[in-house]
Amino acid sequence: MATNKTPIKIELASDERKMLEHIARSLAAPHRDVVRAQTILSLADGKSVSAVGREVGRARRIVCKWANRFIRKRLRGLEDAPRSGRPPRFSPDGGAAPAQARVRAS
């Protein structure tokens, strides 16, 4: 019986592994960071994408996304990408806000 080998090969440096293990065990880190760290650690240990997805509760597509970002950018790849977001309704310097809505700065 042939086993499906994942095409994703992640080799971790010792400092990267220490950092990822610290994040994966953290109770204070955001949950998304913990899951991403667990994902990379499991892939580095040789688990399949499907097994990792089941372990961390994410789809194969998401596991591959974070693995590929980690391969390209290492630890920085696990951070959220910048987003444009919704523009602010009221600018901090006054803008077009009604007079009662402005906050006085001293």
Explain this structure to me?
The termini are far apart. This protein has helices spanning 14-25, 31-44, 49-56, 60-73. The mean pLDDT is 81. With 106 residues, the chain is mostly helical. The relative contact order is 0.12. Helix content is 45%, strand content 0%. The chain is elongated, with a radius of gyration of 20 Å.
What portion of residues belong to β-strands? under 5%
Number of helices: 4
Structural class: mainly alpha
Query: How far from one another are the termini?
Result: 74 Å
According to DSSP, the number of beta strands is 0
Largest sheet: none
The dominant shape is elongated
Uncertain segments: none
Share of residues in helices: 40-55%
Q: Rg, please? A: 20 Å
Q: State mean pLDDT (0 to 100 scale).
A: 81
- Could you give the order of the helices and strands? HHHH
In short:
This protein is 45% helix and 0% strand.
